[in-house]
Each structure stands twice: as structure tokens, then as C-alpha cells.
Predict the structure of SURF1-like protein.
Amino acid sequence: MTDDTDRSPRPTAAQFFSVARRPRWIAALVLALAVASGFAALGQWQLQRSVENAAAPEIDTETPVPLETVAEPQRPMTDASIGQRVTVSGHLVAGDFVVLTGRENDGVQGAWLVGHLVTDDGASLAVGLGWAPDADAARAAEADVPTDQPFTVAGRYLPTESPEVNDVEAGEQRALSIGELLNLWAEPGPVFAGYVVLAEPTPGLDAIHQPPPFRDVSLNWLNVFYAAEWVIFAGFAVYLWYRVVRDVWEKEEEERTAAAP
């Protein structure tokens, strides 16, 4: 352990500033402050970026728009299109109906009836036609679905689901997976990546609960970390000036002590 008597003495404020106020070290201080200001500005910029990234994007999902303005067949869904209320016209294909079980509607278990809409442009779109208390009721409602006339879809556009939630052993289909529906439909054309849940169900079914989408946003902690780093660098620039000035004083003090008789 180093004895306290071996350590260099700490200068008093007057002794420190006797060196610090020399033109050379005043200029060095100005430079250190300029560097610190640059680092602080970079830190502020990083912090602003973290806050901007955390701001929820303002997307109007409740005003219905034509489906083709937010989605295209054979193209992945965009974040902006998720949960968007859309409209599209076409006709429902007879025989291409699927019943999905284990579907909750406002907390109540039941079943969905899903149809295959061929749009006026010839694209395939999965449509959640409505909810029923059980699979039998959903299948019974299939007879009331109009397949012999034009059909206009108006509802919320949602992303495909993973088929992994299906109970294969029990033969139950629970997920609305576009990939699986393609294997069940008789003549699928170019297909949309998502599906639409009708705002107004077809006869014999209840409306499927479809709340507005919740867009998860979080603070960008990487930018916050970078901002903290820049602040530390700014403080270090000023400390480095202080340390150099103190070293100069200590060196001069040692020289004076050595020169003393």
C-alpha cells in the first residue's frame, strides 16, 4: 500500500488557478469546452431519437379504405395495414367454407365461419363471416350465406395466424392460416396475405369482436445508452483539461521543492 506521504499534494484553488489562468491553458479549456459541447449535442440527438422512435405512429385505422390501397395479392402485409378497416367487392365461393373452433368472442368460446371471397380483380381473400356459439351453429349458418350474387366485404384487415395452434389429433382447425386455406379452397387465385373480419356478419351469426389494433411502442434503450456515453465523454473532456493543468502544477511544485536549499 502506498503511504499518504508519497502522494503528490493536492493544489489549493488559488494554486490550481495560478496555472489554469495562463493563456495556454485558457485556450485548452476553451477547446475542452468546445469538445464537450459537441459530445453533449450528440448525446441530446441520440436521446431525441430514442424518444421519437418510442412515439406511437398516428395511423387512422377506423376510416374504411379500399383494400387495394393498403394491400396487394401475393405481397406481405405492411405494419400500416394491420387492423385497417377496408372494403372490397367480389363473390363468395360456394363450398369453400371453413369452420374454426376455439375462437373467443369477447371472452366467450365459440366458432367462426370463414369464407373464400374472389374479388372483382380475381384475387382470393379469406373472410371471417361471423361467430357462433359452437361449430354446428356455424356450419348451419353456411346455408344462409349469399354465394349467387355480388358480395361487398367491409371489416378489419388482420394478419394470418400460425397453424401451430390447430388441434391436429382432434381434427380441429382453430387458426385462420392463409397457407392452410389455400390447400382447402377449390381454385385459389392470387391470395392476400391477411384476412378480413366482417363488421356486419352474415345471417345466423354474431359479429366477431374486432377492437382497434394496439401498436406496441417502447423506448429505444440502445439510443439512450449511446446518449449516456456521449455525456460521459463530455465530462471526460473537461476532466482531462483539469488533470493536465494539475499535472503541470505538480511538476512545477516538485521542481521548486528540488531547487530549494
About this structure: The chain has a mean pLDDT of 87. The chain has two domains: 17-54+219-256, 65-198. Helices lie at 13-20, 23-54, 135-141, 178-184, 221-259.
